[in-house]
C-alpha cells in the first residue's frame, strides 16, 4: 500500500525528469503544436488534455441534480443534488493543481502536460493526472472502526488525445486507482479502468461530448456500474458552459470510477452542468 501511494505521487516528478531529458530529441521544438483538441478542462466526467495556463485561476461550479427517474416526487431531479466547488491554478504552462469540495467528497489533484501533438510529427497529446479523494459518504455509524485513511482513494491516469480535424477530437484514458476501503469484501482495493471520450464540433459555438469508463476488474456482484455521459459544450466569449446527462452523480474521479450507481437502461440518470470562470 505504501509503495503504491509513493508511486502515485512520485510518478509526475519521474515523468517530468524524463520529459526534460528527452526534450528537443524526441519532438523538435521548431514544429507546430496542435492546440485546442478540447475547449474545456473536462470532456464530461473524464479530464481532457487541456491544462490551465500559467497564472490562470479557475473557479468552477459543477452541479448534478438528482435522478430524473424519481419523477415528480424528486421534482425530476431538483431534489437530492450534488454540487462541487473547485479552484484550479496554473503553476506553469503545462502544470496545474486543483482543490474541490462536494457533498460526496473532497478532492485534490495535479495535471501536467507531458508531450504535445505535433503537426506532421508526434501524433497525440499525452497528459498525466493524479488525484486524492476523501470520501464523505462513509459513516461511522455504519462502520464503527472507520479511520480517516479508510476514506482515501488515489487515482493515476494518462490522458492520450488526438485532434483529427477542426471538428473531431478523441481521447483514451488508461487508469489505475486504489481505494483504501471497499464495501464489498470480494473487490480488490487496487482497480483498473480504461476511459474513452470524444468531442465533435457541429456548429460554431456548439460541440457534442461523450465519455465512458470501463472498469476492468470489478467483481460480478458489485452494485456499481460503468459511467456513461453525453453532453454539449457551449462556447461563450472565451468560456465554456457544459451541460450533460450521466449515470454518475459523483463528480470526482473516485466517485464516478468506483461508485457510479445510475443505470441508463432504467432511466436512472442525472442532468448536470459545469460553470467556469477564469481569473
Summary tags:
279 residues; mainly beta; single chain; globular; twelve-stranded antiparallel barrel; 44% strand
Structural features, described:
The chain is mainly β and 279 residues long. Helices cover 10% and strands 44% of the residues. It is built from 2 helices and 12 strands; from the N terminus they run H-E-E-E-E-E-E-E-E-E-E-E-H-E. It has a 12-stranded antiparallel barrel with strand order 1-2-3-4-5-6-7-8-9-10-11-12. Strand 6 and strand 7 form a beta hairpin. The radius of gyration is 19 Å and the shape is globular. The protein starts with a helix and ends with a strand.
Topology:
Layout: H1 2-22, E1 57-67, E2 82-92, E3 95-102, E4 105-115, E5 125-135, E6 152-163, E7 168-179, E8 190-201, E9 206-215, E10 228-236, E11 239-246, H2 253-258, E12 270-278
Antiparallel strand pairs: 1-2, 1-12, 2-3, 3-4, 4-5, 5-6, 6-7, 7-8, 8-9, 9-10, 10-11, 11-12
Amino acid at each position: 500500500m505504501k509503495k503504491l501511494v509513493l508511486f502515485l505521487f512520485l510518478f509526475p516528478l519521474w515523468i517530468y525528469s524524463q520529459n526534460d531529458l528527452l526534450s528537443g530529441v524526441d519532438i523538435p521544438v521548431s514544429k507546430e503544436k496542435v492546440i485546442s483538441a478540447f475547449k474545456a478542462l473536462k470532456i464530461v466526467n473524464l479530464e481532457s488534455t487541456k491544462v490551465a495556463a500559467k497564472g490562470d485561476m479557475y473557479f468552477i461550479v459543477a452541479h448534478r441534480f438528482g435522478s430524473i427517474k424519481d419523477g415528480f416526487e424528486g421534482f425530476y431531479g431538483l431534489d437530492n443534488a450534488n454540487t462541487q466547488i473547485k479552484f484550479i491554478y496554473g503553476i506553469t504552462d503545462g502544470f496545474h493543481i486543483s482543490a474541490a469540495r462536494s457533498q460526496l467528497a473532497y478532492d485534490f489533484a495535479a495535471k501536467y502536460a507531458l508531450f504535445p501533438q505535433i503537426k506532421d510529427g508526434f501524433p497525440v497529446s499525452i497528459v498525466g493526472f493524479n488525484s486524492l479523494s476523501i470520501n464523505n459518504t462513509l459513516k461511522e455509524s455504519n462502520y464503527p472502526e472507520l479511520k480517516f485513511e479508510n476514506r482515501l482513494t488515489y487515482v493515476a491516469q494518462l490522458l492520450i488525445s488526438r485532434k483529427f480535424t477542426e471538428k473531431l477530437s478523441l481521447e483514451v484514458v488508461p487508469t489505475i486507482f486504489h481505494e483504501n476501503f471497499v464495501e464489498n469484501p470480494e473487490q480488490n482495493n487496487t482497480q483498473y479502468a480504461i476511459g474513452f471520450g470524444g468531442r465533435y464540433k457541429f456548429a460554431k459555438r456548439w460541440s457534442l461530448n461523450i465519455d465512458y469508463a470501463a472498469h476492468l476488474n470489478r467483481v460480478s456482484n458489485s452494485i456499481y456500474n460503468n459511467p456513461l455521459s453525453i453532453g454539449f459544450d457551449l462556447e461563450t466569449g472565451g468560456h465554456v458552459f457544459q451541460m450533460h446527462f450521466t449515470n454518475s452523480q459523483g463528480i470526482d474521479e473516485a466517485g464516478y470510477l468506483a461508485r457510479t450507481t445510475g443505470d441508463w437502461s432504467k432511466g436512472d440518470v442525472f442532468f448536470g452542468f459545469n460553470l467556469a470562470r477564469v481569473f
